[in-house]
Amino acid sequence: MYHKAEKEQLEYTNELKNLGLFEKRDPIESDPQIVNSDFSELYMKFIDTIKDFLNVLSSEQLVIVFNLCGYTILIMLMTSITTIVIGQDLINYFELESKYPKLATYIHFQLKLRKYYLMFYIAYFYLMFLILICVNIFMFSIDFIFYLWI
């Protein structure tokens, strides 16, 4: 039955080719309503747009953009630290370990990981904080450094 259906489809395709109704064409080029959805191309356009934007900025504006990105990362880190700390209080408040004993092993495993997550996030927070301070000090004193060299 499969071979019969395959033969019929091939015959119909040949008939359409003979009539000129079945042309091989690119549907994206022929129909302006269809949009190419290539994600990597979209990503590369976005990166190029950001590069063009950063090339136009002065050094002070670049520091402002750097500070905004750094402070955004610090806010995300503080949110992560807060959820780790509050998560344990919620587990204790709702007594999840006693209500769901099968879930207790998973909760204990998560408690062990939380210590390491917390240490990582706190270290990352201080590292980002120090990087932001150093960049700001450097940009504040760059005019003075160039003045001494010239």
Largest sheet: none
**N-C termini distance:** 89 Å
Structural class call reads mainly alpha
**Net shape:** flat
| Structure summary, number of beta strands | 0
- Unreliable stretches (pLDDT < 50, length at least 5) are none
Oligomer: single chain
Number of discrete helical segments: 6
- Rg computed from alpha carbons, rounded to a whole number of angstroms: 30 Å
How large is the share of residues in beta strands?
Answer: under 5%
Indicate the mean pLDDT.
83
Order of helices and strands: HHHHHH
Q: Percent helix among the residues?
A: over 70%
Describe this structure in words.
The chain has a domain at about 60-150. It is mainly alpha-helical. The protein has six helices and no strands. The chain has helices spanning about 1-20, 25-30, 40-55, 60-95, 95-100, 100-150.
Provide the descriptors you would attach to this structure in a database record.
150 residues, mainly alpha, flat
Concise structural overview:
It contains six helices and no strands. By secondary structure, the chain is an all-alpha fold. α4 (59-93) packs antiparallel against α6 (101-149).
